[in-house]
């Protein structure tokens, strides 16, 4: 694993596997979901074929990103098992899984900890006002449900990524309050490795009729977030949603130090192709920023992982130290 210095920006060489696009929530800004029952779930054998193709391509992280099956649905157990099996398969094939599948029960989180080096869940925004607008038909976006996930992750010692969606109807104060809530939880458990600041970027599928969050405001939000969040939490921004190179550099200058998972497709924002590694280097290097790959788990959390996961992580850290 790389040693970070002040001129370093990281990214995770990643591939996203989607067990299912179906989701019982209907967030109006969503460009990902399908109606429950209307799209087939990914089979293990299809996933195995994809993963075989990725072997030897220096991809480390497999992001298991799923639409949600209602906690009381008769399909919940099969859905959870599918996610677990996909993580186990990815791990057995030499990758490091990171799951983001919406709110889970404590027991589901505890089980997934065995097959994930880290996990994630966006807080989006905690203001209950959004329950009357973009989250009106999204029961799992209840602020207390999502905060509880962060607390459980801390209790279970799961290295965790969370984040805010910007420009969905929140006020600036709402935004600072959400960051303060993350900060408080982290001070209790020290388990948040990254906070993503994701600007709302309209896509073809969504019904939410609002302009994109002005990326030119991002540096200001990042600078304020940097003051609110403890220094051991990295701020991540998705570079494909910050199209202007100068402003991407301004975001980094303001305190963002990670560009997230870079792979063939941004499943959450399919209308915005990822900028690939070489193109990012060409933006960053001329002004002195070095882009380096990272693992989906930060070194300070290795000790929280099971022996088997630690072994897999050690192998990747060896590869990283040879190539960086
Ligand atoms: S944003 Fe996530 S939770 Fe909301 S509808 Fe889309 S997939 Fe479901």
UniProtKB/TrEMBL annotation:
<dbReference type="Pfam" id="PF04055">
    <property type="entry name" value="Radical_SAM"/>
</dbReference>
<keyword id="KW-0004">4Fe-4S</keyword>
<feature type="binding site">
    <location>
        <position position="30"/>
    </location>
    <ligand>
        <name>[4Fe-4S] cluster</name>
    </ligand>
</feature>
<comment type="function">
    <text>Catalyzes the radical-mediated synthesis of 7,8-didemethyl-8-hydroxy-5-deazariboflavin (FO) from 5-amino-5-(4-hydroxybenzyl)-6-(D-ribitylimino)-5,6-dihydrouracil.</text>
</comment>
<dbReference type="GO" id="GO:0005506">
    <property type="term" value="F:iron ion binding"/>
</dbReference>
<feature type="binding site">
    <location>
        <position position="23"/>
    </location>
    <ligand>
        <name>[4Fe-4S] cluster</name>
    </ligand>
</feature>
<dbReference type="GO" id="GO:0044689">
    <property type="term" value="F:7,8-didemethyl-8-hydroxy-5-deazariboflavin synthase activity"/>
</dbReference>
<comment type="subunit">
    <text>The FO synthase complex consists of two subunits, CofG and CofH.</text>
</comment>
<dbReference type="InterPro" id="IPR034405">
    <property type="entry name" value="F420"/>
</dbReference>
<protein>
    <recommendedName>
        <fullName>7,8-didemethyl-8-hydroxy-5-deazariboflavin synthase</fullName>
        <ecNumber>4.3.1.32</ecNumber>
    </recommendedName>
</protein>
<dbReference type="GO" id="GO:0016765">
    <property type="term" value="F:transferase activity, transferring alkyl or aryl (other than methyl) groups"/>
</dbReference>
<dbReference type="InterPro" id="IPR007197">
    <property type="entry name" value="rSAM"/>
</dbReference>
<comment type="similarity">
    <text>Belongs to the radical SAM superfamily. CofG family.</text>
</comment>
<keyword id="KW-0949">S-adenosyl-L-methionine</keyword>
<dbReference type="InterPro" id="IPR013785">
    <property type="entry name" value="Aldolase_TIM"/>
</dbReference>
<feature type="binding site">
    <location>
        <position position="27"/>
    </location>
    <ligand>
        <name>[4Fe-4S] cluster</name>
    </ligand>
</feature>
<dbReference type="InterPro" id="IPR006638">
    <property type="entry name" value="Elp3/MiaA/NifB-like_rSAM"/>
</dbReference>
<keyword id="KW-0408">Iron</keyword>
<feature type="domain" description="Radical SAM core">
    <location>
        <begin position="9"/>
        <end position="240"/>
    </location>
</feature>
<keyword id="KW-0479">Metal-binding</keyword>
<dbReference type="GO" id="GO:0051539">
    <property type="term" value="F:4 iron, 4 sulfur cluster binding"/>
</dbReference>
<dbReference type="InterPro" id="IPR058240">
    <property type="entry name" value="rSAM_sf"/>
</dbReference>
<dbReference type="InterPro" id="IPR019939">
    <property type="entry name" value="CofG_family"/>
</dbReference>
<keyword id="KW-0411">Iron-sulfur</keyword>
<keyword id="KW-0456">Lyase</keyword>
<comment type="pathway">
    <text>Cofactor biosynthesis; coenzyme F0 biosynthesis.</text>
</comment>
């Amino acid at each position: 694993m790389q040693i970070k210095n002040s001129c370093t920006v990281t990214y995770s060489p990643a591939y996203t596997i989607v067990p299912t696009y179906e989701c019982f929530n209907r967030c109006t800004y969503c460009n990902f979901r399908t109606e429950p029952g209307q799209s087939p779930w990914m089979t293990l054998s299809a996933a195995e074929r994809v993963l075989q193709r990725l072997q030897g391509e220096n991809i480390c992280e497999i992001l298991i990103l799923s639409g949600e099956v209602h906690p009381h649905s008769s399909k919940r157990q099969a859905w959870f098992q599918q996610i677990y099996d996909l993580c186990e398969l990815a791990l057995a094939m030499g990758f490091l899984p990171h799951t983001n599948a919406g709110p889970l029960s404590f027991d589901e989180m505890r089980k997934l900890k065995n097959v994930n080096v880290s996990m994630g869940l966006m807080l989006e925004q905690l203001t209950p006002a959004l329950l009357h607008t973009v989250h009106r038909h999204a029961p799992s976006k209840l602020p207390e449900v999502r905060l509880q996930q962060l607390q459980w992750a801390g209790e279970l010692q799961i290295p965790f990524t969370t984040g805010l969606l910007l420009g969905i109807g929140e006020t600036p104060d709402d935004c600072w309050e959400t960051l303060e809530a993350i900060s408080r939880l982290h001070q209790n458990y020290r388990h948040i490795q990254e906070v993503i600041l994701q600007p709302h970027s309209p896509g073809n599928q969504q019904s939410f009729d609002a302009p994109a969050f002005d990326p030119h405001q991002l540096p200001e939000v990042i600078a304020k977030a940097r003051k609110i969040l403890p220094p051991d939490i990295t701020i991540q921004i998705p570079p494909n949603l910050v199209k202007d190179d100068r402003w991407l550099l301004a975001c980094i200058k303001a305190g963002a130090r990670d560009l997230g998972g870079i792979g063939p497709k941004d499943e959450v924002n399919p209308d915005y192709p990822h900028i690939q590694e070489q193109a990012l280097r060409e933006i960053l290097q001329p002004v002195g920023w070095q882009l380096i790959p990272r693992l989906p788990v930060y070194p300070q959390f290795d000790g929280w992982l099971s022996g088997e996961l630690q072994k897999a992580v050690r192998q990747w850290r060896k590869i990283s130290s040879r190539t960086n």
